[in-house]
Amino acid sequence: MRDWSKFALLGAILVSLLVSQFIHLDPYFSIVVVNIGINIILAVSLNLVNGYTGQFSLGHAGFMAIGAYTSAAITSFGGPRWFDWLGGINAFTTSTLFVVALIVGGLAAALAGLVIGVPSLRLKGDYLAIATLGFGEIIRVIIQNTDAMGGSRGFSVSGIYTTIFWTYSVAAITIYVVVNLVHSAYGRGFLTVRDDEIAAEAIGVNTTKYKVVAFVLASFFAGIAGGLYAHFIGYLTPEGFGFMKSIEIIVMVILGGMGNTVGVIFAAILLTILPEVLRPVQQYRMVIYSLMLIILMLTRPQGLFGGLTWRRSTSWLRRKKIPLEDGSAA
Amino acid sequence: MEALLDLHECTVQFGGLTAVNALSLQIGPNDLVGLIGPNGAGKTTVFNIITGIYKPTSGTITLAGSSIVGRKASAIAERGIARTFQNIRLFESLTVFDNVRAAFTMRLRHGIAHALWRGKPFLKEEREINAQVLEILSIFQLEKAHGVACKSLSYGDQRRLEIVRALATRPKLLLLDEPAAGMNPSEKDDLMKLIQFVKEKFQIAVLLVEHDMKVVMGICQRIVVLDYGVKIAEGSPEEIRRNPKVIEAYLGEETTPPAPTP
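^ Those are the sequences you sent over. The predicted structure of the assembly is below.
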C-alpha cells in the first residue's frame, strides 16, 4: 500500500510554480486569484476548529492579524540587515526572508492560539464564540495602540513578495494537513469531540488536548495566511482584521458544509468571486450577495457540499483503498 | 482476593443534597455486580464518580491499587474503566466502523507528526487498527454494518455497538448504565446472554445499573441496593429478594390493613 497524498501535495506545489512562472495574468485577475488562495487557507484551517472539532470560534481574523503584523515586522525591520548579510536583493534572499517571516508569523499566531485556547476552550457553544470574539477584538485593539506598527494609521509593508506560487503552495499544505489529520486514527479524535464530548472522554480521548491542538493548528495557518496577505496588499490596517473578517471566513465554512474540506474550498472560491462578478451592478452588490447567501442556506442548510466527503469525491484518484479483512474498503 | 475496584466511604454532595452517602463497594477482577435502587437513589452518581465525571466530596476510589480520584475521565478510561450510557451516546456523524475505531485513539503509538507524514510505521498501525476493529465487530455480528451510519442501526444494535466501543478500549471494568432500558423481552434475553458472554470472553468485571429486575436477578452474582444514597443491602440475588429493607424501599412499608368495617 502506498500513500499518494504526499505526491498530490508535491504536484500541487509544482503546478502552482509553473502557473506563476509561465502564465501571466493581468493584475486585476491575479489579485482575485491570490485572494481566493488566501481565503482557502483561512477557511480550510478554521474548518478544523469549527467544522471537524465542533468548537465555534469567532476570532480567526485576530490570528490572521498576528501573523500579518509579525511577518511584516520581520521583512520590514529585519529585511535590510538580511540582504546586507547575504549580499544583496536577489531571488534567493527575498524568498528565504519571506519563508522565515511567514513561518515566524504562523508560530506567533499559534502561540497566541495556545494562550487564548487553553482558557477559553473550557467554554462551550455560544460562550466560546463570545470569548473568541472578545480575544479577536483585543488583538485588534492592541495592534491599534502599538505605535511601532503604525497604530490605527496603518503599516506599510516594505516588500511585495506574495505570488500565486506561495499562496497556492501554502493552500495545498493546509489542505494536506487538515485532510490527512482528519483521515487518520489520531484525527478521528477531533470528530468524537464534536459529536459527544462526554462519550469521547469515556473512551479515553483527551478532549481538552484535541481542542487545543485543533485551535493551535488553525491559528498557525491563519497566521501564515495573514503573512501572505500582508506581503500582497502591502499596507495593513487594524480595521482589516476586525470581527467582519472573522464572519466572512465563518460564512465560507458554514456555506461549504461544516467539516467538509471540498465544500469549504468551493465556498471560499465562490464567495471571493461573487462580489467581483457583481461589480457591474454596484449599489445592489451587497444586497444580491446577501440574498444569495440566504437562498443557499434555505435550500442547502447542510452546506453546498454537505454529505459529500473528500474521500468519496477523490476516490477516482486512488487505485487502492485501505484493505480490510473481508476485501472491502473503509 | 485483591479487589479490582475499591470504593471506600465515598460521599457526594451537591450543595445541601447528599446524593451518595459513605458508600463502600468492592468489585473483584471477574465479578458481575448489579447496582439497583429506586429512582433517584444515586446509582448514576456512583457511575459518574467512578468514571471521573464528578469528584467525590470525600472518600477514596482505587483501581487495581492506585487512586483514581480527581483524574480526568479520559485518564480513567485509559486505566481500564469503560462505560455505556443510559441514553445511548454514539458518535452520530461517524460510521459504525469509525465509532469503534475512535476507541483506539488513546493507545496509538503514532501521534500527529506521523498522521501527517504517513510513513510505513503509521500505515502499518492504521492497518492493524482496522483489522482489530473488524475483528471485534465480527465477534458481535456487526461487521456487515461497518460502513453504515451508526444512527441507522436498530435500537438494540446501537446498544450493542456502544458496548463494543467500550470493549474496544480493552477495559478491566465495564460499567453498563441501564442497558435494558427500552428493550422488549426478547431483546432483554439477548442482552443477558451478551453481558455474560462479554464477561467470560474478555475476562473483565462488569458493574450493571439496571431497573429491570429480571435482568439483574438473572445474571448478577452479587447485588448492591442503594436507597437515598445509602447502601441498604448487599448479597446474592436470593438474599436481596428476601431482604425486608429492599422490599420496603421498593414497595413501601408493610402496614396492617385496616379492619373491615361492618
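Chain A has a mean pLDDT of 89. The longest strand of chain A covers residues 155-156.

Shout if you want it in another format.
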